[in-house]
Structure formats: C-alpha cells, structure tokens
Amino acid sequence: MDHNNDSKTGMYPEVHVPPPVGQMHGQPVSNYGQPTQPMGGYGGQQQSTTTVIVQQPHTQQNPLKLVDIYGTREWSTGICDCFSDIGNCLFTWCCYPCAVCQLASRTGECLCTPCCVPGTEIILRARIRTIGGIRGSVCNDCLTVNCCGPCAACQEHRELRNMGL
C-alpha cells in the first residue's frame, strides 16, 4: 500500500493551521484587524478569511434564581426508611411535637413555630425541599405529612443530617 498515493486520492482530510498571532496569510495584520492587501498578488482576486468562534455565546442565568423550579434531585432516603436511624425513629414516635420543633430550629425557624403557626409540618417539608433542591410539590408534601406525619418527620431529619444541617 502506497501512502503517498492515498493522500492524493483524498483519504486523509486537509488540515488547516491558523497563521501566527499578528499575521494573516503571511502578511502583518493592521488596519484595525483587517489584513493588508498583498503586494503584487493574484490579479485583483480577494482572499477570504475564516473566523473561528472559540467560546460560544450563552444565555445569562438570573443571579436571583438559585435552583431549578422543579428541583434537581430526589430525597436521599425514602419515606419508609425510618428504621435505618432507630434513635431518630423512637424520638419522633414518642414525642412528635418535640421532633417537629427540632426540625423548625434546624431549618432556621423559631423553636416555637410549630406551636404558633398552623400547618407548620407542611411548611417545613417544603422549606427542606427548597433548601436541598429536592423535587416535589406542596400538594405532595401535604398528603405525605397528613398520611405519614411521623415517617415524614424522620425523613426530614435524615435529609437535614445528610445535607450537613
């Protein structure tokens, strides 16, 4: 097999090497970035130049929006994983109001919020989802808290622990 013959038949693509910085087609660049016309030359023929965009333009994100509206991940533990942390499970089962007050405190709310604000468990679950970028909805939070309150509180405690809060 003759490699010289293969290159002439077009088996290998032609490689374009950009000119050195400050030169275009062997001529110094002047006139505000436009190449100068070559002396002598090709009888009035124009030379074409190719512009390569290295960094593509992109849309600017709103700096006030921190997370995607739908969240970016799921809960790190399931709603029925209560027995993976038996101490938390027993504490929540024996003293549910204390567990919810502790959740309020860990999310930056006043410790007494659950005693004074109706629906605090739903609000705290939505707040934890927002802080962690967890997918879900307020409707789903309401159903989860009303059907499985202690299990939801255990899951929220585990999630805050896994997030380092």
Task: Write up what this structure looks like.
This protein is mainly alpha-helical. It is 41% helix and 5% strand. It is built from seven helices and three strands. The protein has helices at 3-8, 86-94, 96-106, 113-116, 120-132, 138-147, 149-163; strands spanning 23-24, 27-30, 34-35. It has a three-stranded antiparallel β-sheet, with no helix packed on it. A hairpin with a 3-residue loop joins strand 2 and strand 3. Helix 5 packs parallel to helix 7 (149-163). It is elongated. It starts with a helix and ends with a helix.
Please supply descriptive tags for the structure shown above.
single chain, 165 residues, mainly alpha, 7 helices, elongated
In short:
The protein has 165 residues and is mainly α. It has helices at residues 3-8, 86-94, 96-106, 113-116, 120-132, 138-147, 149-163, and strands spanning 23-24, 27-30, 34-35. The longest helix is centred in the last third of the chain and has 15 residues, at 149-163.
